[in-house]
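Onboarding guide, step 5: your first structure request.
Type a short instruction followed by the sequence, for example:

Predict the 3D structure of this protein.
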Amino acid sequence: LERQLANIPLSGRTTEFEAKASQIRLELCENLSDILLCDPTVATQYDVAAKLWRGCFYDRIVELRGRISRASRSKSMDKGEKKKILMGLEKTLQQFLSEAIKLYVYLIGKYESMLVPQSTQSQSQLSYQSQESRSHDKRNKKSSNGALLLSPPSSDDSTHFVVAQGVIPTLYRILIHQGDLYRYDGDFTMAESSYSKASKLAPGKGNPYN
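The system replies with structure tokens like these:
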């Protein structure tokens, strides 16, 4: 699907090409989202968050922004035609960003739900495997089965947080991408909120945004 999407020309697209690209992008988005939700370990191993961002959203955003920029600079169109084209492109971009943000809000909600106290987790949930981490702090401990237990900063040590391998690094990435979406949408307050959440998951990485 990624190769099929890459083979569709960006310039001179017909309505047929646009429809085909949208269909491939939708299918790719669904497949990658399923992987992210079903197996955070595999998602991290194959950098699925980056594939989702690049293949389904970033390239399309860059394309639309480029078309808007070129149309606004064009001297070959009269004002009425230019205004109509720009309004259409800007509306398309706005709708695309809105749908993308909805997906990322959903994905982040699902990943944050994996960071719940062990005592409140249902026995029907998937058993969590060990998580490799380069930023263990003094409170981090491992259980007998290798799952990473994150103790909350509390005097009551009876509750631990069990985190599946891959959850934190993937959540970090999708928070950054959500911030980028808000930034492209002009909502800088929400963008900063997403970047701030990401930086708390991976302190020391510098500016989380592009």
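Each response can be followed by summary notes, for example: Confidence is low (pLDDT under 50) at residues 118-161.
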